[in-house]
Amino acid sequence: MEIPELDSYWQYVEYWSSVDPDFPSLREGDRTVSAKDFEDMTDQLAKAFINLGVKKGDRIVTILPCGIDYIFTLIAAGKIGVILVPMDVKFRIADLKRFLSHARPKVIVALPGSGDHDIIESLNALGTEFNETKKILVGSSEFGESFEYLLEASFDLDEGLKAAKLNQDKDDGALVIFSGGTTGVPKAALLSHENMALMSYIEFECFKGWLGPTIGERRIKTLVNLPPSHVGGTIEFIGTGIVGGLEMIVMDDWSPTMTLEAIQREKILFMGGVPTMFAITLSLPDLDKYDLSSVKFAVFSGEKVSAELIGGIRGKIAPIAINGYGSTEAGSEVTFTEPDDDPDRIAQGYAGKPLPTVKIRIVDDDDNELPQGEIGEVIISGPLAIKSYFNQPEEDKVGFTPDGWVRTGDLGYLTEDGGLYIQGRKKQIIRVGGYTVLPTEVEEVAIKSPDVAMSAAIGVSDKIYGEVIWLFVTPEPGRKVDEGKIIALCKKELAKFKVPKKVIIRETIPITRIGKADRKALRKEVLESLENNNSL
């Protein structure tokens, strides 16, 4: 079945509602939403947001897991030209203050709590700065109207919604995803409607190519279980399901056993994730007890992969294993490998060839294009790439070339046939299980301890997570640093994936000539120590 190329997600919701109104677009536990209900309920929510005074260009922040309520908010915001800013339910007070201060949202839609995180308590701790921000909770009226009320109340705003839909352009900002920054502040990548819709459309067309006529059957199910604050969660998982008109089996969190049970129960055709997720799945001692015969291919990206991991995926999970490369700014995927590509080649950094509309160049430090085979920075151009960051002109200067190409911060080279190899990165970001972490995010929390004089965080290679965080600290004169207290402080202030795996206490930390912690020297020291089996 041919799918039209539309400008936004909300237009696809309306398209599939007209094509097959009774199709179960969304399922989460016992909750099922038909294609027609998907359109109607997001219209209702959009009118509720208009009633709250939200207008084009305003921001709505979500502190929600992957779920139907998040997907409703995503589509409703798009219908009225509002910029959605998804934040992870794992974000604690320090994270929220940093991100909310930049987003300046008109509305926050949140859960009351998640796991051991009392989100209401975190919101109350934000202080008077956000008193004017309307807070809407799912399943609670703690701050007034609940999310459920917005979905049920009657708002006579049909004309207002119609006008809001007409007052849009495909280049309008629609989504902010925070990623690692070059200046020590998380970058707010501003994705347009076109960035999102076209990326999902191209990816779905790739799926069709790998599967042939199978995917032409409308009753295809897909798992949606990545955090929406991750570009893969909103664009690749949710977006591809919306564009393809798939039946999305929505799960509020990822776990290997829940994923395997869902695949077996629902006969899922394809699955995706970061390599860490597949590594954890393959490590399960009882993996063979699950029937995964329905899975035809698996897509992974976000971290370097080994030939052994690819072989494990192909042998035990899916016969076709596809590696992708992309970034929040350049396009969640800008290259894909092919089903028959050699695992050893992929393990050496091969990321495949550019997707349609994507242009890739390799440049030196002065933006001069380098010849094939020579390593330099990978820069990207095309309609999948963002045009700017949200209200961060300084990051715009650093993150883009003068002619508008996205600087990925990754090092690589191109082959004669246009293939891309990734060989490392220039940026000082740490990638933990597909998440990006700025060293400064961890360091700033550590130095809140009165015992710590200086701190430096680095990423250390890990077989499961790709990288984990090691934190080096020096004590204040006359004080003693307790590793357990530093870990506890980080757990209180930061999302779990940002908490150091190890705290190393030393008298000194190497510094650069301008007086900053020399993370490069620390990383080299750690690498040499690990190679020689020495302890730090």
Written account of the structure:
This protein has about 525 residues and is of the alpha/beta class. The chain has a domain at about 430-530: GMP Synthetase, Chain A, domain 3 (2-Layer Sandwich), CATH 3.30.300.30. The chain contains 17 helices and 26 strands. The strands form seven sheets. It has a nine-stranded mixed β-sheet, sandwiched between helices. Helix 3 links the parallel strand 3 (about 60-65) and strand 4 (about 85). Helix 1 packs across helix 3. It starts with 8 loop residues before the first helix and ends in a 5-residue tail after the last helix. About 50% of the residues are buried. The model has no long low-confidence stretch (mean pLDDT about 90).
Descriptive terms for the model:
single chain; alpha/beta; GMP Synthetase, Chain A, domain 3; nine-stranded mixed beta sheet; four-stranded mixed beta sheet; 26 strands
